[in-house]
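Hey Z.,

So I finally got round to the zinc ion thing we talked about over coffee. Here's the setup:
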Amino acid sequence: MNEDIQDLKNTLRKMTIRLGNPTLQYVIASEGNTSTKTSDDKKMVIKASGTTFLNPDFVVVEIKKALQLLSKEYASTEVSEKMRDMVINYKGEKPSKEVTFHAALKEYKWIVHTHAREIEGFVCSKAANDVRRRYQYIKKLEEISDGSIAWAPYANPGISLAGEVRKAYDIYIEEKGYGPEAIFLQNHGLIVGGDEPNIVEEKTGKYVSAVATLRSELSQKVPIETMKFGGLKDIDYSDKGVLSRAIIENLKEIGCENARYCDSQLLNLFVCSKRGREYILTGNITPEQIQCLGVRPTWADYSKSDKLFNNVKAALIDYRRKFDSLPKVIYIEGLGIFAIGSFDEEVGIICDMADKMVDVLMRTIPFGGPKYLTKEQEKYLAG
Ligand SMILES: [Zn+2]
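And the result:
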């Protein structure tokens, strides 16, 4: 049977848009990707690079050409050329950079790859990085979800990740005699694959709720103060509105083209907490965090309103002297966070990602806290 590519694309589009529903918290901005393969295993429809789940574009690629990328090491210019070359009727859009793992997981006709906050809370945690505890928790998650979960150790996004993902699938099938439905990616996210689109969609939800169940069970043993980043400090600005507007004006004066105050409840709790500073300055937990927020944020300690701007300015000037650029985020203790960028869309994404990362950090706490990326991994990602 020769399926109609247009039909596959339409089904994939509808599913992708449903999975992009913000209330599900599976992806933000252009995170994640979805794909489907034709029955003859020759072609694959996959989300185009840089497009979002809510407004996705798709490209059709030749699976054979995508797999060639895994056969040997290519220089980055060659990779970019091959990404273009694998697209059938190339019109300027390339496939997602994760096209290689979609191609390598040949057993899955439909694939959904998301960066769900709930899943990241587990895969970015210390427990998930500890062999014994990971084994125990994954077993439990398989029971709760009535599913099958393979584990892929951290790898740089793109070709290296495809190698680890393939290996994870093969190890699982060798041990159990059947393939996994899901692959959890350390410090990254979730892959769910299967024969039918409605099943992979439904199972994505099932794995997310299994982690939520386990997390809430473990949370009961964690003191509430610990859950809230060590508890709240007794600090507050009574004039947050006035202060944040003044800071934005001043940020523009020192060369920040566009700045936005992000004042979600979670971010406010974070900047008023005892351990927020330590959590955010220790490092990063996912590649997207680095891509969106940069490797190093800045933190300005609490100070009296009249001294605040001078302190913020000093922190930024010091940052610029050290790193020759401005940070994408500044956390101001007791006040909130400011996104720094060039365009409205960019600062909007920075605010959303900062909020997401604080949420993920919080979700790691019942699993023993965050497992940060290593300095070498950060260096690679910072490019
Ligand atoms: Zn990803």
